[in-house]
Amino acid sequence: MFEKRRPGAVLFDRDGTLIRDVPYNGDPGRVEPMPGALEALARLRRAEVPVAVVTNQSGVAKGLLSPDDMDQVNAKVEELLGPFDAWAICVHDDGDGCTCRKPAPGLVIRAAAVLDVSPRDCVVVGDIGRDMEAARAAGARGILVPTRQTLREEIQQAAEVADDLTDVVDRVLSDTGGPVPAVSAPWARAMGWSRW
Ligand SMILES: [Mg+2]
Ligand SMILES: [Zn+2]
Fold first, then answer.
1. Per the confidence metrics, is the pTM higher than 0.90?
2. 44, 134, 146, 158: which could form a disulfide with 150 (CB 3.0–4.6 Å)?
3. Ligand 2 geometric centre to CA of 171 (Å)
4. CA torsion, ordered 157, 158, 163, 169, to nearest 10 deg
5. Cα-to-centroid distance, 138 and ligand 2 (Å)
6. Ligand 1 ion: residues within 5 Å (CB)
7. Ligand 1 centroid vs 16 CA: distance in angstroms?
8. What is the pLDDT of residues 100-143, one digit of tens each?
9. 25-39 confidence digits (pLDDT tens)
10. Smallest-distance ligand from the CA of 102
11. d(Cα 101, Cα 60) in Å, to the nearest integer?
12. How far apart are the CA of 130 and the centre of ligand 2, in A?
């Protein structure tokens, strides 16, 4: 008897995953949710699974986007998709040597820390290989949702690929693939077992 094992949190890439990818977008008017994003988030929130955003915004380092523009775009994302429990944002670029820009694991680790969960209990959802590498490096479960921008080798290398955000939430909330069986039977509870 295994309980459906819910994740500690689901961490979403922003561009190309939650909203359409408009490179270096600083215009809130151009924010457009991806199909199924609102409902996927609503299902997770109803299930009391924390949701967060882990996003590379190198446009700030490149000077293509001001921090204020970025904040306004993020505010629009919350206006359209509801509040997130955490935002972890890397404003650096390749070559800055930061530890947060995906594929580094820093954003996943930071978001998990803010939410007070282990990265190992997090699911990272993204549209490119960098997202999956960050997940792997942090010890999280990565689920790739390919778009037209996703490279074939990124799909081939992904540990798990979903059709869309609806499929992601189906997988996450009815998880049969989780590596750790939860101890949830009444006898186990009576014996004071816990999965923590
Ligand atoms: Mg993306
Ligand atoms: Zn960074």
1. no
2. 146
3. 30
4. 180
5. 15
6. 13, 15-16, 127
7. 4
8. 999 999 999 999 999 999 999 999 999 999 999 999 999 999 99
9. 999 999 999 999 999
10. 2
11. 12
12. 13
